[in-house]
Structure formats: C-alpha cells, structure tokens
Amino acid sequence: CGVFGIFGHPEAANLTYLGLYALQHRGQEGCGIVASDGLHLKAHLGMGLVADVFRRDDIFERLPGSSAIGHVRYSTAGGNDMKNVQPIVVDYSRGSIAVAHNGNLVNAQEVRNALEKSGSIFSTTSDTETIIHLLARSQSDSLVERLCEALMQVKGAYSLAILTETRMIAVRDPNGFRPLSLGTLDGAFVVSSESCAFDLIEAEYIREVEPGEVIVIDKNGMQSYFPFPKETRNTPCIFEYIYFSRPDSRIFNRMVYPVRKEFGRQLARQYPVDADLVMAVPDSGMAAALGYAEEAGIPFELGLIRNHYVGRTFIEPQQSIRHFGVKLKLNPIREVIEGKRVIVVDDSIVRGTTSRKIVKMIRNAGAKEVHVRISSPPTSYPCFYGIDTPSRKELISASHTIEEIARYITADSLCYLNLDGLHAALAQFGDHKIDFCEACFSGNYPVKFPRLRESNQLG
Ligand code: 5GP
Ligand code: SF4
Ligand code: MG
C-alpha cells in the first residue's frame, strides 16, 4: 500500500489526489482521501484506480479544508472489498480520526480476539482497525499518548498517516519496515510513502520519518517523539529496493535507481554468460538489466514491450486474471530477438508462472538461447510485513532447486543474485551496516509472530 498526507495547504485534497497518483504502483485495488476543514473529517473512498475513484470534480468540493490524508490499497491483510478500503474513518468519544496504513501487523488477530471478547465490534477485516480500537479504548488524556499506548500493543510493520480535525500524525514502526518521508510545500508539511510524490507536487524532500518516530503536526508546527523502547533493530525492507518502490524515489535515505542498477552489475559479476544482448522484463527488471549490460559490456535492447495500460499483474488477486495478464502486458520484438543468445533480467521469481511464459514468448520470437538472471535471491519465504507474497507452498523456490526452476521456466540457464551479492551491492552505497529485513530470502524474520499463523502459513 501507499500513504500520503498534507497539513496546512489550501489545496490539500487536490494535492493528496496527485500524491496518490504518484503512489499508484503501491496498490491498485482501492483508494481514498480524507480531508479536514478544522471541524469535521470528510471522506471519499472507492474500489479501483485513483483516476477512476476521483473522476468527478465535485468530489473535491466535498473534501474541503487545509489538511488531508490518502491511501492506495492492495490487500495483504483482510479481504479485497469496499469495507477494507482506507483511510479508515471513525467517530469516537473524543472526536474523529482517520488512519491510512502501509504494512501489516503480525499480531492483529490475537489483539482482535481479545478486544472482541471484551465487547469491541469490528466493522472491517483489516488489521489496521485494531490500532483504532486500542486508541479509542485508551484512558490517556492526550491523543499522542493514546496513540502510543495503542502502538505498544501491536507488532509488525506500519507506516501510518493519521488525521484528526486539527492534527496530522506520521508514524513509522520501530523496525522501519516500510518507507515514509517528510517534505514541505509552501510552508505545509507533507508525508509520503515515497518521495516520487513530492517531485510531482513540487514539494521539497526534508528527510525520512525515522524508524520508531511519531511526528505530530498541527497549526503550531511539528513535534517529534520516539516513544518505543530503544532496543529494536532497524530492519527496512530490502524488497522495496529490489522491486516495490519506484526507481525515482528516495527511500531509506537512498535513491532506488542506482541501488537497483548496482544489483544488476553485481549479478553480472557473479554470473556472466556469453550472449548477444541483454534485455529486461519491463518495468521491474529495467534498472537491473541496464546495470547488468553495462557491467558485462553487452548491448542492452528492448526485446519486450510493455502495454502501459495494464497494471502490475500480481496485484490482481485473481489467479485467472494474473494468467491472462502476461500476454496482455508484454509483447516481444522478433527483429531484436531472432537468432540471438539473450540474457533476460528480472527482479524476482515468485510463483514462476510469469517467468515461464516470458521465456516461452522469447523463444517463440526466435531466440537461440535464453539466459535468465534474477536481481535478488530465490523468494523462499512469505512476507508478513506488508508485501503480498503468496503462501509458502505457492513460492516455487520454497520447494524447488534452482536447476528445477530453470527447467520449469525452460531457461538455458538461471542464476539469482545471492545474499552476499545483495550486500556487496549495498556496500557500494555505505549501506552494508544496515540490517535490512531479507526474511523472504533467508527465513530470518526480524519480528516474530504468533505460532499459530506461522505453522498455518509457513507449513
Ligand atoms: P512469476 O514468474 O513468479 O510468476 O512472476 C515474477 C514477476 O512477479 C516478476 O516480474 C516480479 O516483478 C513480480 N513480482 C514481484 N514481487 C512480487 C510479489 O510480491 N508478489 C507477486 N506475486 N509477484 C511479484
Ligand atoms: Fe521485505 Fe521480504 Fe522482509 Fe517482507 S520479508 S519486509 S518483502 S524483505
Ligand atoms: Mg515484473
């Protein structure tokens, strides 16, 4: 998912719309904006793309005020129906509050069970709602205390944009799994999952919201708090660099593009092969393919062309649509590929179904050899922190060796950048000391989760 917020700007809802537009790649199932005019929160939410949900101008007339938050959703927790679209807005004893959440709580079910036992009635199936219930039940006087009290009871990944009538709050969990940045525009404060949204609205990047930081913004300015115990490791999600974030974003204090390109260079150093051209699976393999081609000294070609009116196929939760999606999305250029030994670079293999179709597509276009290079290690474990990887039994590398996967996808050779390679690439940027989460590759989960879910989903 993606979150965005702005405080202190007369065009708050309009700018949030633009911000969400720039974050659309982080979720395409649904979206919403909540605005405050200082007295009331007004919301508009819907299923579908930002441009479709906010198609009519009169929607913005009904979102007045100088502060707003927004969310783009894809379902990692909770179903994909209208009632789980965010921001979640509630009225409770002390006023109104809206919450937009990127990430996934690992103990939401346990917290929810306990709350339901003592009488709480939940209106969504989303993990985010547990935060709101905990906050509403807190007896503390200040909003910040109530929020911190709630957050102390949940575990997992959360980058939050929160709006009340008079305040906006930005929070990043103590591990800092998901990115969240702070910016400024005409004296207003802006927060966004990725800085590419700042570029679009011409906001200035200030810094990232730190792991474990709670930033409260009101008419008097900005206050920063670090309410969590200090011992938590900072474990930002390495997969944001590999795949999820846009290459033109700055996350975790680094531009994504050069990092992603370096993964490709490193891959070329680790796994060279004689070939006539290097091509990418667009768009996700593009930066790494360029890095690979540069390092290998082999020409880069556009061998596959992408139809840009098709979204990220994996975000469609239906298997039937995902299968159809590959041909809809990609078409090879025979004149580039025919008779050639090609290296195809992609960022990851999840189920292997797309990669198999792509290799076949390239062969049908006349390739003599197809060498697949993946700019991350085999994805062998599911993510519990907000990336929509399927369950372990659907992950092809959880149950197959690299040789078996190569045979399945019908590649002449298949190589993955290994964890050392990832670290070597990050070391070029001075990031080798950061303890990234890489659990989907290593199985080493930095935040533990209740046994029950572990055995259900990992088993
Ligand atoms: P596969 O060959 O596993 O079917 O598809 C691989 C493609 O899925 C890659 O191009 C990659 O960009 C994309 N992908 C990346 N991350 C994810 C994810 O978290 N979930 C899914 N399902 N696909 C992803
Ligand atoms: Fe990111 Fe993988 Fe960790 Fe999930 S498990 S937070 S995708 S590195
Ligand atoms: Mg891809």
From TrEMBL:
Cofactors: Mg(2+); [4Fe-4S] cluster
Domain Glutamine amidotransferase type-2: 1-220
Catalytic residues identified in the record: C1
Coiled-coil ranges from the UniProt annotation: none
TM regions (residue ranges): none
Binding site for Mg(2+): S284, D346, D347
Pfam families in the record: GATase_7, Pribosyltran
CDD domains associated with the record: GPATase_N, PRTases_typeI
Pathway: Purine metabolism; IMP biosynthesis via de novo pathway; N(1)-(5-phospho-D-ribosyl)glycinamide from 5-phospho-alpha-D-ribose 1-diphosphate: step 1/2
InterPro entries on file: GATase_2_dom, Ntn_hydrolases_N, PRTase-like, PRTase_dom, PurF, PurF_N
Cofactor, free-text remark: Binds 1 Mg(2+) ion per subunit. Binds 1 [4Fe-4S] cluster per subunit.
GO BP term, example: 'de novo' IMP biosynthetic process
Catalytic reactions on record: 5-phospho-beta-D-ribosylamine + L-glutamate + diphosphate = 5-phospho-alpha-D-ribose 1-diphosphate + L-glutamine + H2O
Any GO MF annotation of the entry: magnesium ion binding
Family: In the C-terminal section; belongs to the purine/pyrimidine phosphoribosyltransferase family.
Described purpose of this protein according to its UniProt entry: Catalyzes the formation of phosphoribosylamine from phosphoribosylpyrophosphate (PRPP) and glutamine.
Protein name: Amidophosphoribosyltransferase
Species annotation: Pelovirga terrestris
Gene this protein is translated from: purF
